[in-house]
NAD-dependent epimerase/dehydratase domain-containing protein (Flavobacterium limi), 337 residues
Amino acid sequence: MKFLVTGGTGFIGARVVANLWERKIPVVVADLNLNMEWTKQIALLKYKKDSAKMSEIQEQIDQTSFINLDVSNREQVNSVFLNFPGITHIIHLAYLMSAEVEADHHRGASVNMLGMINMFDMVAEHKLSRLVFASSETIYGANHSAYGDENYAVKEENYCSPDDHFYTYGVMKMLNEFTAQKYMKNKGISIAAMRPPIVYGDGRMRGSVLWACEFATNPALGKKAKLPFSKDSRDCWIYVDDAAEQFVRLALKPKLNHFAYNNGGHSVTAEELMQTVKSIIPDAEYEFDESVPRTSLVDRCDSSRLEKEIGFIPRSLEEGVRAQIQEARQRQLQNSY
């Protein structure tokens, strides 16, 4: 067994790679802009007080190949499988986020559409066991009102009209999923799509949701957190390490019962999010933008399908926020040496 993780030194990708190292699963880490030191730090910081475990992780790191890869370039993608034989699974996380897509639609289509098709082709041509890729809750549109009851948790079979969408990114994810199922039917390959909500945690460095890091990391470091929406805005949040665990478990399970899965998460208002942080850091300072009533995302996602499939329930919001705060402080301390 050997994994290829694309976008492997990004926010979620680095956590997936660290998860595979902990499992002692060989991995090839690919990214357009490699950040190897960041990815290694993610894995080692967790076991700073456990020298034996750090030694085990370091051994896995030493055996890992890090490569620059543009997933939109089919020749480059295919060369990975020729140069690193034995790859059996892909976790595909190389994708341009919504703001990047809107800034450059040509590049966005190249990476997000052609890059995805290149990965589907590799699964078929190299007879891989499974590809798991990151879809998104944005495929459900920009407003929960499309599903009626505000307390309804959106399920995998729910869809809305293109008129209910805001993000080009989300519509791209819909086409990715549609195309994946064509490949599964026509070529008999195994693909699964995960639909994460807002993924929070320390270390997010780019994208349009940097606030999903800053809401807890800033207070942890004595800074004010500015959230670009009302304190009454409701969203679904999942901790980054839990999302990584879901990706890996879904990739490893021999047989799956479905194609698409909601990651789930905790549905909370920004006010509730702030109070969670304040329960840990009482003097945390926040600033909201009350001129923006809500984010352009659905409010609740049902995760029962995935929980049943992989037997994993994400940690509580408080546990996740506490883990983020601890990591942010550990990283600041380490980087100050």
The longest strand covers residues 234-239. The chain is about 45% helix and 15% strand. Residues 203 and 255 are 33 Å apart (CA to CA).
